């Protein structure tokens, strides 16, 4: 299996960013790691191995990016306005540095975006904001409102709210979308959500599913047994849904 390591200075983030690529052809898969995870996470927890056959057959090519969650949503010492702005810079890095590299390396017409836990938020957020860039999103064990408090998980913006937060909260802006161009792309996208029946964000997933349905956006929501928030479950989910 082809494996490549990439590292470059990101002018949008003013820091080095790293990435691993697995495979040589097929649908391009942009992979976000879990909360505060690293670019090598999917390899370390065995998900890459789970997809080995599809990768080696040239069906999929994974592009596993790094996170900067410790500089954005989990940067507790920063003012929440700074946290969301750092996240915006991260999105600009993905849009203007990672996606062009993916297109340069692989001309395949299908681009998938995928993630687990907070990576699922990143996947859904960028897919719903820029639906013309993606044909499929697979979001596992995610939350789609970072201002929501559930179980031991708090509001990652400590009560702060502005227009930027609104437009980076899928559960807030998707129900009110009126742009037919964006809605058209979302309705043509293959959207798969999966959550554990005991996951504290099951209700959040169900609310997001209702919001998608209200907008006529076809999708699938799969509820798994138990909490299903671990690599053991994600390996099974990825094998089924990717």
What report would you give on this structure?
The protein is of the alpha/beta class. It has a single domain, classed as Rossmann fold (3-Layer(aba) Sandwich). 38% of the residues lie in helices and 21% in strands. It has ten helices and eight strands. The protein has an eight-stranded mixed sheet, with helices on both faces. Strand 5 (111-116), helix 5 (118-129) and strand 6 form a beta-alpha-beta unit. The mean pLDDT is 97.
What is the H/E order? EEEHHHEHEHEHHHEHEH
**CATH topology grouping:** Rossmann fold
Give the overall pLDDT as a whole number. Answer: 97
Q: What is the number of E strands?
A: 8
What fraction, in percent, of the residue positions are helical? 25-40%
Strand % is 15-25%
* CATH level-1 class: Alpha Beta
Strands of the largest sheet, in order across it? 1-2-4-3-5-6-7-8
Level-2 CATH architecture: 3-Layer(aba) Sandwich
Low-confidence stretches: none
Number of structurally distinct domains:
1
Gap from first CA to last CA: 18 Å
Q: Classify the secondary structure makeup into a structural class.
A: alpha/beta
CATH superfamily grouping:
Alpha/Beta hydrolase fold, catalytic domain
Secondary structure layout:
Blueprint: E1 3-10, E2 15-22, E3 27-32, H1 41-44, H2 47-50, H3 52-56, E4 60-65, H4 80-105, E5 111-116, H5 118-129, E6 136-140, H6 163-166, H7 170-173, H8 180-188, E7 190-196, H9 202-214, E8 220-224, H10 231-241
Parallel strand pairs: 3-4, 3-5, 5-6, 6-7, 7-8
Antiparallel strand pairs: 1-2, 2-4
Quick summary of this structure?
The protein is an alpha/beta fold and 242 residues long. The chain is 38% helix and 21% strand.
């Amino acid at each position: 299996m082809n494996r490549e390591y990439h590292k470059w200075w990101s002018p949008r983030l003013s820091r080095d960013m790293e990435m691993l690529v697995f495979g040589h052809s097929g649908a391009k898969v942009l992979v976000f790691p879990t909360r505060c995870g690293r670019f090598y996470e999917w390899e370390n927890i065995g998900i890459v191995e789970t997809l080995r056959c599809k990768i080696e057959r040239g069906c999929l090519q994974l592009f596993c990016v790094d996170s900067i969650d410790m500089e954005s949503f989990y940067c507790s010492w920063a003012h929440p306005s700074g946290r969301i702005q750092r996240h915006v810079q991260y999105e600009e890095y993905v849009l203007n540095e990672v996606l062009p590299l993916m297109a340069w390396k692989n001309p395949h017409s299908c681009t998938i975006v995928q993630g687990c836990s907070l990576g699922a938020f990143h996947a859904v957020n960028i897919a719903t904001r820029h639906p013309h860039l993606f044909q499929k999103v697979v979001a596992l064990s995610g939350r789609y409102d970072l201002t929501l408090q559930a179980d031991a998980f708090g509001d990652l913006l400590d009560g702060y709210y502005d227009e930027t937060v609104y437009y980076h909260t899928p559960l807030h802006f998707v129900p009110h979308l009126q742009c037919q161009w964006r809605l058209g792309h979302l309705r043509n996208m293959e959207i798969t959500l999966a959550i554990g029946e005991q996951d504290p964000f099951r209700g959040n997933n169900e609310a997001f599913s209702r919001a998608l349905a209200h907008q006529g956006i076809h999708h699938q929501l799969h509820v798994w047994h138990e909490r299903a928030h671990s690599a053991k479950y994600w390996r099974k989910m990825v094998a089924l849904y990717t």
